[in-house]
Amino acid sequence: MYASREDIGYDFGDDSKVGSKPIKPNPNIDGGWAWMIVLSSFLVHILIMGSQMALGILNMEWLEEFNQSRGLTAWVSSLSMGITLIVGPFIGLFISMCGCRKTAIIGGILNALGWILSAYASNVHYLFLTFGVTAGVGSGMVYLPAVVMVGQYFQKRRALAQGLSTTGTGFGAFLMTALLKYLCTEFGWRNAMFIQGAISLNLCVCGALMRPLFPKDVVSEKHVVRSNSEDNQAKALSHSAETIKSNGVLSEEPEKKEEATNEEVLDSVQHIEIGGKSRSGKSMYGLRILKTVSQLTVTVRKGFAIWYSSYFGAASLFTNRVFVAFIIWALFAYSSFVIPFIHLPEIVKQYNLSSQNNIFPLTSIIAIVHIFGKVILGIISDLPCISTWNVFLMANFTLVTCILTLPLMQTYVTLAVVCALIGFSSGYFSLMPVVTEDLVGTKHLANAYGIIICANGISALLGPPFAGLIYDMTHKYDFSFYISGLLYMVGIIFLLIQPCIQKKQRREKSTEEAQV
To answer: Which PROSITE patterns does the record associate with it (predicted)?
Structure first.
């Protein structure tokens, strides 16, 4: 999806400069350090997505502490969850410029800082900035590199690797729910957030494990890599230099001229430095600053060109009506999965089921079954006689049915059964990349999936506050689930209608051609 000059996975040589050295795949692809990348991504999903799924515990504490409306308080959790996904396309700019490792480490520090600063919150609006925005952006800066690096390190076993790493979400929701509940009970929510911030610093360790895939000839011939960096990126990424040219973003000749000009500036600065050793330290310091600025300018321009061509050059995707329907579905779907995690703890409290829920929380049931749902639905969709699209739709129908019936369940056993079905049917998340690829093709998969994830982020951002607002108006959560379920059903209907319309249009077109 994204790559910087540091993240290239194969040894690409230039025969005219290096020799007739055969192209060899990096030995770490599909093995070796690749499994450490899977472990790193797995831990990232536990610490980020798992923590976000456990925010219902903190949401109850914030309601008691600040005495604000449920709609306003829910914005804290939804901002963190939504921003994590929404900023994905923009985090790609950082990845293009400085690589996945540096981006993830910076994001880990920012995420931990957001948790720690939130421990000193004096009101809900303070949490909007510290937890919602700061921790949310930090989460996005770690989450996207964790997904991208798995894709770079795996070719043959990519589906297996992504599946193993994303199961961290289910494990994390189970573990973090228990951990946050224990910390809030023993130390209070402020100290719990402080401790969680310290735990989140382990994201920096996960980022450090994201070792870039270096070509073997980088060390010995750096000038070759520099002169061919554009070719390397074009071969390593799904979006190539041809995509940039076809979209009118950059042309080949101006880019070469600009690159040559920048190289001349850097070389001239280096010659001046060598010949002017006798000059004053002040002038040499100025030359070093000029050299650094020139190098930074080159890096930023190249990174921005790749990022711009990836997303703003993918306008042709929106001519696909089924893909547009898929985006509309994504805008409604994810909130129906998120709302139970945020508001279930309070629903249990209203039904006087806290004693049973303390033994085995309902959110933990969703999290555990969610793991099995991802694996089982993936296995079923891989069967030769089964359509992935049909499995995807059936899982969506099951989930929307559970959302609509959840308010009718008022005992722990019935709630547990519905939550288990929610967890299993939401395993369709593992099918989303496959469905997206079927809709737009392999060439546009990275860009299309990024847009879908961004739409999911908007859904996660608006869903929980909307549910809280409905409760403030009606003093019941029932209507929140009914309305979100109906909106979700509208999204599913869009998915059903558009393919039928396209099939009809194809039949009419083929009939007209046959008549002619």
So the answer is: MFS
Model's pTM, two decimal places?
Answer: 0.68
Whether 464 contacts 484, CB under 8 Å: no
83, 218 in Cβ contact below 8 A? no
Phi, psi at 217, each rounded to 5°: -90, 10
Q: How many domains does the chain have?
A: 2
Indicate whether 437 belongs to any domain.
yes
Each residue of 421-440: pLDDT tens digit? 998 998 888 788 778 877 77
Q: What angle do CA 172, 175, 176 make, to 5 degrees?
A: 75
Nearest-angstrom CA–CA distance, 314 and 28: 31
Q: Going by C-beta distance under 8 Å and a sequence separation of 6 or more, which residues neighbour residue 326?
A: 435, 436, 439, 452, 495
Give residue 64's identity as a one-letter amino acid code: E
Q: pLDDT for 363-373, tens place per residue?
A: 888 888 988 88
Same domain, 200 and 326: no
pLDDT of residue 5: 41
Domain endpoint, select from 210, 239, 272 = 210
Residue 293 placed within a domain: no
Question: Which range marks the domain in which residue 407 is found?
Answer: 315-508
Are residue 67 and residue 205 in the same domain, yes or no? yes
